[in-house]
Specification:
By secondary structure, this protein is mainly α. 45% of the residues lie in helices and 8% in strands. The protein has a two-stranded antiparallel sheet. A two-stranded antiparallel sheet has the order 3-4. It is elongated.
Length: 171
């Protein structure tokens, strides 16, 4: 299960004394498996709410941004949920910037800015060299953009910094 890992559960296997066929002849395993799935989903909800809280996103903000009734997330944490909240929280956990888009009434300009900002963060983190006091970066790139209207995004303007002298780092 995404974000919580795999679960091992013990199930029953019945074997026919006559033909040797094996299986769950009286359907005892269905509830065992369903309970394990529900438990993992509940753990996912709790971990995701905690993960968001660590990033300064409260349950109240989550509810406001997504136009959910008050205490909805609390009910989810208490085990009252369906497949829809699980899917919603998987999207939010994977793309936390979706909350800013929701808070911005799903405005195209807000969405474009959030996507580009998130992409820049991901690219920067992936390509950022390890810098120690005795090393210097090859170059620093700052990408700036502006939203002119909902339908047009200006071309990014890149600023490239010349590498500093050895032992110095530009921030």
């Amino acid at each position: 299960m995404p974000f919580v890992g795999q679960r091992a559960v013990s199930i029953f296997v019945d074997t026919c004394g006559t033909c040797g066929e094996s299986g769950d002849f009286i359907s005892r395993n269905t509830s065992i498996v369903n309970d394990a799935i529900h438990s993992a989903e509940q753990e996912f909800i709790a971990k995701t709410v905690d993960w968001l809280a660590e990033r300064g996103i409260t349950m109240a903000y989550l509810e406001r941004a997504l136009s959910l009734p008050a205490r909805t997330v609390t009910r989810w944490r208490d085990g009252e949920f369906s497949a829809a909240p699980i899917a919603l929280l998987r999207f939010v956990r994977t793309y936390p910037w979706l909350l800013a888009v929701a808070e911005g009434a799903f405005d195209h300009g807000v969405a474009a800015k959030a996507v580009i900002s998130s992409a820049a963060d991901v690219i920067g983190a992936a390509q950022s060299p390890s810098v120690s006091p005795t090393s210097s970066p090859i170059m620093n790139v700052n990408v700036n953009f502006e939203i002119h209207n909902q339908n047009q995004l200006s071309a990014p303007m890149a600023e490239v910094a010349v590498p500093p002298a050895k032992g110095h780092f530009i921030q």
